[in-house]
Structures
1.
Amino acid sequence: MIYLLSGAPGAGKGTQSDMLVEHLGFRKMSTGDALRDCAKEATELGARVAAIMNKGEFVADDLLFDIVAAGLDKFAREHGNGGNSGDAPLKVVLDGYPRNINQAEALSSLSDKYPVMRYVLLQIDHEHSISRAVGRVICGACRAIYHRDTNPPQQENRCDGCGGQLVQRGDDVRASLEKRLTIYKRETEPLIAYYRERDKLAEVNADRSVEQVFADIKELVLQDA
Ligand code: AMP
């Protein structure tokens, strides 16, 4: 079963997905992380993806669908039994997918194998979204997420967990963020109505601490179990 985590940049999709992995046995797929890996490759596709991401625009739906479908199949193989049977069903959190109606329709074509349980919308106010994303730094090795002011590492620029170097994302700069927020409103917000109509929408106030937000998400997951 699939949980979708959605929200504006800085809403905490990555952090909350990591907590679902750590505390509730989820597998996580972040389309942003998958694309950042792709962008690092010295290939024509890598260069194209990097350019799109740095402008704050969306990468093509077809490529995203291939990434997500392949990732889900990999999780299912690793889980065994096609991911659906047994005592502990496969639980996957998708961080950052779908981001528009076309992607939601593509995902629903996989619903026999991978049914969506919830579309969890992390709601955050505009300025808070920008300040969270602008201050965000990420471990280049293990991808742990920090914030320069609200969740700084113990040692400057070093990951507390693995000692890796912390880096700022190329798209976490104001110009790119304003663009991402505009695209978010235009492309992603229609998904709220889409999942509400299908009775999957869960809205969570994300203008709170990581722990408070996670407590609400955890309650949802436990209700569904
Ligand atoms: P994120 O790490 O989720 O903030 O995503 C970073 C960037 O990756 C986005 O601004 C897009 O350029 C790209 N991206 C991630 N997920 C998607 C998606 N589902 N559709 C299109 N582009 C995406």
Note: The mean pLDDT is 94.
2.
Amino acid sequence: MQIKKASVILSSGMAVPPKVLTNYDLEKMVDTSDEWIIERTGIKERHILDNNEVISTYAIEASKEALKRAGLQAKDIDLIICATLTPDYLMPSLSILIQNGLGAVKAGAFDLSATCSGFLYALCIGDQFVRNNPERKILIVGAEALSRKTNWQDRTTCVLFGDGAGAVIMTGQENHDRGIIDFILGADGSNSHLLTLKGGGSAYFPLDEKLPPEEYYIRMQGREVFKIATRVMEKIALELLERNNLKPEDLDLIIPHQANLRIIEYLRERLNLPKEKFFVNIDRYGNTSAASIPIALYEAEKEGKLQRGNLLLMVAFGGGFTYAGVLMRW
Ligand code: UT7
């Protein structure tokens, strides 16, 4: 199949902080166990920033690798979009730190806040940007420092999250046999109270006494979020397949947002596909929100599980709630 105006991913890169926090480390911090965490989430360890580190370091490192693998220089980039919920600062944005760190002198840059679906949202914006201007090159980054917004006394959330960054370079190509075929972006704020991070926004003054200290960290009613996540991920996947006259077995690989192995397994069972068709690395990184899909993309390609010409489906769901699906020929 030829895609008349295609947006293709040229390369990817990733970087995570070297510090690893295992389930055994967490056992010493809260009332939990390696067994519980593995059974309920599939996570064994996660990378987290050391106290003196910032996530922009890793966002820049991931971007440099993507540039190198695409054979491009920073000055070739026209736009930088960084999907993140946890930038170093609100101002300057993380995308600006990346722009400056790379020396991407002609690039526009902005951050995008769409929680765990952020990278796929950014990919869809990038798709629109290059389709009619195929010579343009975009750097799309997903980078998170969720450990900084984690309440390390709350066992219901602190076992879940990790830090890291992934990046891709996207460009346009006329009449191509690969690229983005279709996407879905969605949002539903009716249950937003189930997953929140209130402190740091403008509703409250800094360290406002009206806001309890725990509201400066991510709070989640996990069981309720789980139910919605499974339903929505299945819905997006089936809708994208159906409207493109595809069956689940036509897919070569599915890269789901890595929030919980049981959510991924549920989707796999609903699509009735073998384990090999799902890329999973949650055991090593935990939930890295907007960084989870670009990190997985990078690893899937490196491990030879994602190859040129493969039909790829990416699906994500996150706080807000936001959700997204992208169907593409790799
Ligand atoms: O990325 C954005 C979207 N996020 C998600 O999609 C995450 C969705 N939710 C989840 O992944 C799961 O709900 C969790 C992993 C967060 C929790 O798993 P669960 O199977 O839904 O557990 P639960 O919340 O129903 O809790 C079951 C029990 C409770 O004890 P009781 O009330 O049955 O006595 C919890 O207190 O497990 C207890 N529990 C823990 N025990 C040991 C909760 N957290 C822990 C823990 N260690 N870390």
Note: The first strand starts at residue 3 and ends at 15.
3.
Amino acid sequence: MPVAKPESSDARVIAHVDMDCFYVQVEQRKQPNLRGLPTAVVQYNEWKGGGLIAVSYEARNYGVKRSMRGEEAKQVCPQIQLVQVPVARGKADLNTYRNAGSEVVSILARKVRCERASIDEVYLDLTDAAEKMLAEAPPENLQLVDEETLKSHVLGLNDEKGIDAKENVREWLCKKDADRRDKLLACGSLIVAELRMQVLKETEFTCSAGIAHNKILAKLASAMNKPAQQTVVPFSSVKGLLDSLPIKKMKQLGGKLGSSLQSDLGVSTVGDLLQFSEEKLQERYGSNTGTWLWNIARGISGEEVQGRLLPKSHGSGKTFPGPRALKTIASVQHWLNELCEELSERIRSDLDQNKRIARTLTLHASAYKSGDTDSQKNFPSKSCHLRYGTAKMQEDAFNLFQAGLREFKPQGSQNSGWRITGLSVSASKIVEIPSGTSSIMKYFHGQNPSASLSKQSQDDDIQEPSVSESCSEMNLTEQEMKFPGEDSNTKCVMPCLDQQEHKQDLQKDQVMISLHNLVIFNLHVFQISFCSALQNPSCLLPSKGQDDFQEASLRNSGTECCSGIRNQSQQQRVFPPQQFAVSSSNRTDAKRKTSKDKGTHSILRFFKKTDPPSSLSLIKEEHGDNLQDVEALSPTASARENARHVEEGRESIAACSYKVDEIDPSVIEELPPEIQEEFRAWLRPRKRPDIVRRGSSIANYFAPTKRT
Ligand code: TTP
């Protein structure tokens, strides 16, 4: 649902930058001999030459369209160059394109607030930069305006034949008595032209842009003149633009809401909405959407450019068209495993590189039923709390699929079978790990961190993994939940967990997340020691490489977890066998090293500040029989044991590999001085590789016609 936000000012300067035929440009950079030739990137699936996903402007001139397959494209343009999308795990691998998009974002974000909107689109808030330019070096004082800015399209500017378009633009840019809003847009045009040139110089990619007073208008404008051009929407042209704009072309109106406006209100253009009062629209569509519609008819939108350079979610999907449709549970599971493996790698790398964690795992599928009259029914999307680790994600995604399938094709239904034509898994609700370790410190010192964490907990509606412990037959309660920006068709599968307990888990999660921020390396023993101190071993985020180990442990020890329906309390309390196995095995390893004491006294003192009895009782309560060896210890013995593991863990830390670059120095500074010293001793400095800068071999053109 669109959200109505009042416009903070109608004099903001917002740009939307959209790369031109992006995948094609990425491939052309890889193979420069393709530059200037009609080229298209085709999907992995080779059926009929593969589906086109990106088409160069040279190929578009021949009538090649994205909806075509390679064979058809060759008919309309025999010389077309078809490049297959890179492949990994039997599906398209988009990493090259994602990375290329990141290159562009990093250039655009150097000077202005930047929001990455998709793999190849970015919003920029140029208000401050434009105001500064207007105050210090207004366009009206310019002796020379650069060519790229002069090529701008200014909506509403007279561009009749015979009039020198560039001269016209120059006059508009430099008009002394122009409206202040127009002057700001003129500044924005100069800034965007320069940024686009910079992107070209550094990446060899061309892009187009829209410059307007808000995001919606800027996005509309960027698509108006492509490739490699920019379009400005002065305030005075907004009405003219929207009057003739088909309702479905407006952002957020391409779907059901737009259809309802067409069928129920008889609206065909955005301008047609002007005839309805705000009250009338609110009456029909609710107060928020009604106000949003009323605003949008007038080109008003207060949506801000979020300072976000990273994607909002990660997804991995594959389609299975025609005869490739999946018909068996085994084939679905195979593909879900592949998709989850990719997704898991991506969220892991997001965690490592950007210190962000994803909270929600969602499964989408498209399907049809053979021999069923009700074949229109959609396969319901399902979500659950995201658990890190490839095997866990695979397990959860599979269980989400089965939950969806039960709804799509209820048990005992007569139709002969289902066919899956598309599968995707996505990780969303991505949040940054809180920087600093104050929550950990508070926790260690017996203070309740909930004050700082409660908002997060309250905001989080998602329960613990609904499908944990691999019980595919588990009886789930399901509850419809909607998340902003997510498919309204998505449901969140939720178990009957106690809300309060879940909140506590989330708090502990947060503590562990801070811990992860503190030291990101593969350190099982160290983690277990920390976990004991934190009173909840199961809250650990697994480290890279830990999954395999965990999976092996699971196979060795955890047969019962798949053995059918578990009662609710067991589900809630179960101690993940893999964690325990890690603990035991590392403990054995560590015992061999007990004799070596290399002076870890301050760390020992630090950990001894935790409360051993409560630690023990909570572990016992949570993990029951699985912790028999711990249970046998007296509280004091437990504390000693705890400390000993830390000490032994310290040995492992020293021997372990770690990534110095990924340790946030500010986090270390929050530790007590004696701990800081020890950490620093571990963190031996390593040399950073020299950054190789790309040289630009092309640069003196934007217009494709200049290519030879
Ligand atoms: P778009 O920005 O929609 O298109 P484009 O960059 O290819 O061309 P244009 O100049 O018209 O903006 O999509 C960006 C990339 O996303 C595109 O190069 C390929 C990929 N893509 C798909 O893989 N499938 C799709 O259905 C679409 C629309 C895009």
Note: The longest helix spans residues 329-354.
4.
Amino acid sequence: MARLDVTETFHGITFPGHLHTQDSLQYALRFPFQDTDILIATYPKSGTTWMQEIVTLICSKGDPQLSQTVPNWTRAPWLEQYYSAAVLEASSRGPRVITTHLPQHLLGPALQGSKAKVIYVSRNPKDVIVSYYHFHKMAKFLPEPGSFQDFLNRFLEGTSQYGSWFDHVKDWTSQTATMNNLLHITYEEMSLDLGSAIERVSTFLQCPLLEEEVGNCLKHCSFSNMRDNRMVNYTLIPEEIMDHNRGSFMRKGKIGDWKNMFTDEQNHFFESVFRSRMQDCSLKFVWERQDEEELCAIEGIPLKTAEAPVIQSA
Ligand code: PPS
């Protein structure tokens, strides 16, 4: 299945035709979830692969065997992608770990009445945009991104592949009020305190871990370990599909990289659109990570009492 230049439009949203067909998208909407399923839902570039790794490791009690021998797209397939039906039918033991980039308004009906556990991962959208922009350069199944300004415009108007980030995040997170089988966790929480994030996820999955097992999970899902793990760093994907000379999937893994890309003008433009689109939403985002040392110098306080994150709405 090459179809590198094909775009599928489904319910008004565009998807790469290399990975999706009308049938595979329809299949997702009618998917019979089992109560034991674990679903990871994300807008692209929000920490999907990281959460796939965390869940795999938690379910394996910190043993990296599975995460080091089976590619992430086989052990946690994207429900809407063309190969998922075959992979899911072949999987027999343990809870199924399934991934989706679909918006809640499309997948919600299939989940209704199911006790499947849903983990929604969000990331501050400025870093999502930058990560997505770089990914468009290397992934040959995505359109050429053009200039960063063009890409930013499309993202903010909601015409990027996989649709509007605003609708995705607002619709999925609004479900936390009514769905007690939904956990919302952020990329930034994972980045600032991975140990606590792992414990949050393991508690939610009712899969308690011993201290040593948490330590093993922590080690194997660190950025450096994942960057070197061929089962998650996408170096298994051939050059015809991902041009590894144009970037790395495991690129920087940082909070606040947008500052290296956005001009002041682009930042103001982003913030005005963000304010207007998110006015009905109380989510707070971590936009940058201030080094403890830097913060201490500003605040004139001893290093160990400094707070790391800067949390604010745009
Ligand atoms: S995709 O294509 O939607 O599946 O991409 P996704 O996995 O959601 O996002 C890729 C970004 O996540 C970063 N990443 C990590 N950051 C920190 N620590 C770990 N362990 C980690 N694993 C993945 C990855 O580097 C991409 O972000 P950027 O900003 O591009 O580096």
Note: Residues 303-308 have pLDDT under 50 and may be disordered.
